[in-house]
Design a protein that fits this description.
183 residues; Rna Polymerase Sigma Factor, Chain: A; Arc Repressor Mutant, subunit A; 10 helices; globular
């Protein structure tokens, strides 16, 4: 069943159509929520809440083709709310990697050494919310710039400029860290 077919069936009240959507998006949604909440348990709760919201609000989705960015907007909002409600810092709390963290790695991270992964995660955590969010959507959930624009309700040109500034900030943080390591 295609994504659009699953969305249409879900909109008609067939809750069994959620299963293929869950299978397709749960892992990526967990990585996204984890980068925001910095807690595996909070990320899992946020993803579960996001799917509950999908069921409740699927009728508001006008175009089944727009499901992906719409869904990630829900995931981001539930993860931010979860981080705020738990009192966790959304931007700077990064501990050492553990086994639970390793299961939340993106394919790009899986190719890096643990030290590099930790350096990238620390740098991403130090970005402001806007930059961290755009980096997460682009590189962890692999949304296109158009899909990011839809998910964030901003123009595509704004997505491009935010991505450019976020990459620059990330490069600067990593270069600073690299300089500290080699000093």
């Amino acid at each position: 069943m295609s994504e659009e077919q699953a969305v249409l069936r879900l909109q008609r009240g067939d809750q069994s159509a959620l299963t293929p959507l869950y299978n397709q998006y749960a892992e990526s949604a967990l990585r996204t929520a984890f980068l925001i909440t910095r807690s595996r348990a909070a990320a899992e709760d946020a993803v579960q809440d996001a799917f509950v919201q999908v069921i409740r609000n699927i009728g508001a989705l006008r175009s089944p083709a727009a499901f992906r960015p719409w869904f990630y907007r829900i995931v981001i909002n539930t993860a931010k709310r979860s981080a705020r409600n738990s009192g966790r810092s959304i931007s700077l709390e990064v501990g050492p990697l553990n086994q639970a963290d390793l299961t939340a790695l993106s394919p790009e991270e899986a190719a890096l050494s643990l030290e590099q992964i930790q350096a990238v995660r620390v740098a991403i955590a130090q970005l402001n919310d806007m930059h961290r969010e755009i980096i997460t959507l682009k590189y962890y959930t692999q949304l296109s710039e158009e899909e990011i624009a839809g998910a964030l309700s901003i123009p595509p040109g704004t997505v491009k400029s935010r991505l450019f500034r976020a990459r620059e900030a990330l490069q600067q943080l990593l270069a600073t860290r690299e300089g500290v390591i080699h000093s």
